[in-house]
Amino acid sequence: MPWFGLGVWRVENGEEAVNAVKAAIKNGYRSIDTAAVYQNEEGVGQGIRESGVPREDIFVTSKVWNSDQGYESTLEAFEASLKRLGLDYLDLYLIHWPVKGKYKDTWRALEKIYKDGRVRAIGVSNFHVHHLEDLMQDAEIKPMVNQVEFHPRLTQLDLRSYCKEYGIQFEAWSPLMQGGLLENEVLAEIGKKYNKTAAQVILRWDLQSGVVTIPKSVKEHRIIENADIFDFELSNEEMEKIDELNENKRVGADPDNFNF
C-alpha cells in the first residue's frame, strides 16, 4: 500500500474526476481512494484506464456505504462498485462507518470477498477502539487498515497506539482539515525553514508519524505540490510542536454519534 495517494471526496463524477485521477497518476501517484457514496467511481475508473499505467501498478480503494451494510447487501454493493469502476478486483475495501448492529455482518461479507480473491486487503473507516475490539471478537481476519479523520488538531493518539499494537495500518482522511490549517503560524514557520507550505509540512508529519495519507485536490499544480514532500525531514522537535497543536477537534462526524 503506498504511503501517499489521492483522495476524491467531493470530486465531481465525469470530467473533474477523470482529470484529477489522470493528473495524479501522471505525476507519480499510485494510490487512489474513492467510495460508493462519493458517486464518482465511474470517473475514477475511467481516469485509471486513460492514464496509460498498468492496472496492477495502481492501488485502488473503495468503501461500502452505510445504507448498503449487512451481509448480502455488502456483497452486492461490492460488485456494483467494481462495475462502476470497471475493474476486476480492488486493492482495499473498507466499511465506511461503524453502523450499529450491522458492521459485524458487513465484515463477514468483506472476509468472504477477501477469501474469494476479489480484494487484496480489507479494513474499516471511522472506527474507534471500542468498535475495533467489538469487531475482532468475532472476526476471522482482523482489519488491515483503519482510515479515520486525522490532522494536527485531531491526533488520535490512543487510537493510533491501539492500531499499531494490533498491526492495523492507520490512514488519514482530511489530513489538511479541509484547508483549516493552511494559515497556521506554527506550520508556516516550520515550512519556511524547508521552503515548504503548511500543507506540505502536515503531509510530511503524517508520513513520519507512520500514517498513510490521501489529500484531495482537483488542481494539477496542487496535486504536484502535495506530493513534493520526500526531499526533507522534520526534526523530532518539529514533530512534537505539530503534535502539540492537538485540540481533539473534528471537522467530520464523531463515529459514536452520526446519523447518516
From TrEMBL:
Domain NADP-dependent oxidoreductase as annotated: residue spans: 5-247
Residues given in the record as substrate binding sites: H96
Keyword annotations from UniProtKB, A to Z: NADP, Oxidoreductase
Active-site feature positions: Y38
Pfam family, one: Aldo_ket_red
GO molecular function terms listed in the Swiss-Prot or TrEMBL record: oxidoreductase activity, acting on the CH-OH group of donors, NAD or NADP as acceptor
Residues under site feature: Lowers pKa of active site Tyr: K63
CDD domains linked to this entry: AKR_AKR5G1-3 (cd19157)
PROSITE patterns: ALDOKETO_REDUCTASE_1, ALDOKETO_REDUCTASE_2, ALDOKETO_REDUCTASE_3
InterPro entries referenced in this protein's UniProt entry, alphabetically: AKR (IPR020471), AKR5G (IPR044500), Aldo/ket_reductase_CS (IPR018170), NAD(P)_OxRdtase_dom_sf (IPR036812), NADP_OxRdtase_dom (IPR023210)
The organism's place on the tree of life at top rank: Bacteria
Family to which this protein belongs: Belongs to the aldo/keto reductase family.
PANTHER family membership: 2,5-DIKETO-D-GLUCONIC ACID REDUCTASE, NADP-DEPENDENT OXIDOREDUCTASE DOMAIN-CONTAINING PROTEIN
Name of the protein: Aldo/keto reductase
Originating species: Lederbergia citrisecunda
